Amino acid sequence: MARVVVGLSGGVDSSVAAYLLKEQGHEVIGLFMRNWHDTTGTLEGDCPWYDDQVFAELVAKRLDIPFRFVDLSEEYRRRVVDYMFSEYQAGRTPNPDVLCNREIKFDVFLKEALKMGADFVATGHYCRKQTIKQDGKVTYKLLAGADPNKDQSYFLCQLTQEQLQYAMFPIGDLLKPEVRKIAEEQKLATAKRKDSQGICFVGKVDLPVFLQQQIAAQQGNVHEILPSWRGYAVQPAADDLAALAEPKHYTVRDGKKIGTHNGAHFYTIGQRKGLGIGGRKESLFIIATDVKENVIYVGEGDSHPGLYRQALRILPTQEHWVNPCESMKTGERRRYAVRIRYRQPLQMAELICNEQGLYILFDEPQRGIAAGQFAAWYDGDVLVGSGVIEK
Questions:
Q1: Which one from 47, 100, 157, 325 is the annotated catalytic residue?
Q2: pLDDT score of 205
Q3: Are 252 and 223 in the same domain?
Q4: Is 100 part of the annotated catalytic residue set?
Q5: In angstroms, rounded to a whole number, what is the distance separating the alpha carbons of residues 307 and 217?
């Protein structure tokens, strides 16, 4: 049996993960990480992390396992939150949860666990790991969780072979109701606790308020682009990948001013809430932001052509393959199922590798492709790779 350090978060999933590992006979240690102190912009009380720590400690006592505490807030600020601010400042939309797993849980936290003599680190993620031995070499595959409603493999899309080597996902084969049932049967304090929401370790936030810690609010104009805009009539050739992946570019002359906002940095493509402009038959959606000119462009209705695009591009430096041996070579084309955001149903697409990078050409136009987000591609249940969307 192994010594396993479990990242006890104060939630039901990590609690049951710890219980299952102990039942399997492992030496289990619960380690709670505090990663964020500032409550600016949070919507869930003054100290959400404090409640999490209390629940984590209660679970450790119930399971009779050692409980440890580590403060990783300095690394978290530097490697996750500062990255968030810089991406929003540039008019892009980052995914801090993906970064948190790559940079904190399976890097800084993992190193802390290894100092404690851990053989593995376990989390409460709904995903699975497969170990393959071939010709004397061991490789690891990252698989989607068995619960299609809770699969969290997307959040782990940037993990490496070295990180997966130490990873354990004890609840990956379970459904969420089964996890809740186990927690209730074992009388764990987290059995009925709600799932956490919002930014990893920060919680639910009022994003503009949160971002205003480093990005100043500045009033700008909202311009509406009609579905009849002349640019939509120009269709790129089916083999012109660069044109297909290029977002539409608007100027203030292309649409009518219909309102104001407090900063283009605080908004993202596809966003519907937060504009404060009503009186429409259908909702207004953000179809483009211009942080240089501080202008937001919107379109009415979920079917507005400005919301949809056939392709996206990932720079060569931003490609990530869970197993580097499976990476694509220039001139190669492959079929994969792809998602560009958490919980989005998988979309069939062709990945095309050329000198400009990796293009993802979807079978159907995709809604709300946002630069800075991660695209992840799958072969069946296996998450093969991912990359930051450049455009």
A1: 100
A2: 56
A3: yes
A4: yes
A5: 25
